[in-house]
Amino acid sequence: MKVYCTNNYEAMSRKAAAVMAAQIIAKPDCLLGLATGSTPIGLYQDLIAGCKQGDLDFSRVTTVNLDEYAGLPGTHDQSYRYFMDHNLFDHVNIDIANTNVPNGTAADPAQECERYEALLRKLGPADIQLLGMGRNGHIGFNEPGDAFIAPTHVVELTASTIDANARFFASRDEVPKKALTMGVGAIMRARRVLVVVSGEDKAQAVRDAFAGPITPQVPASILQLHPDVVLVGDKAALAGLLETGVKL
User: Fold this and answer.
1) Which long-range contacts (CB under 8 A, 24 or more apart) does 95-101 make?
2) pTM of whole model > 0.85?
3) Phi, psi of 223 (to 5 degrees)
4) Which residue ranges form the domains of the chain, and what is each CATH number?
5) Active site (catalytic) residues
6) Segment 93-113, tens digit of pLDDT
7) Which conformational region is residue 22 in: left (phi greater than 0), alpha (psi within -120 to 50 degrees), or beta?
């Protein structure tokens, strides 16, 4: 694992964007695994700037997203399709037909998970899979549990995840209780995994994930088994991990 410790969120975003930009430049028809949430927004803004400046070309890029809320249409302002459109896709020269997000309003969510898993396997492993990390160590919506779940699946969101996302909704009651999420199988098949973390509220999760035991109680801990992980975080998020003596 390669760890980059930055001074603040803006520097974290620039460094992570540079990692992704290098992949796009090296392989213009690459497959990018993308994530939502507040942490990647700065990274996406830097990628947009690169595209507008003519340094990045998304015209041959294909993307697959980690997850989507069950029950929210792509037009809902808290859906992850909406998030991706407004925070990246609408601002770069990507073919929207080459962007993939699970369908949160599928009549049969389990069948939609099977469809999405088949798509992931058809497209092949992501060249880079971008991940944030929840305060409970979740990646995508793979929540703490008794076992790692490999395929795309429907998940019941934990109270802590619902609480963390409640700020984006008018009330906690409006936060969806279920989501469709890429499982750890596709994440671990990615050629490279890029993890971005920011803020002291993520410090314990980062330490547990990368310096603790590999356990489904901390889903991100499975990344210890991946051969090519790049962790980019600010000092606050990496504080706990740095205390363990991890090499930078």
Assistant:
1) 95/59, 98/61, 98/62, 98/63, 99/62, 99/63, 99/65, 100/62, 100/63, 100/64, 100/65, 101/65, 101/68, 101/74
2) yes
3) -65, -15
4) 9-243 (3.40.50.1360)
5) 67, 136, 138, 143
6) 999 999 999 999 999 999 999
7) alpha
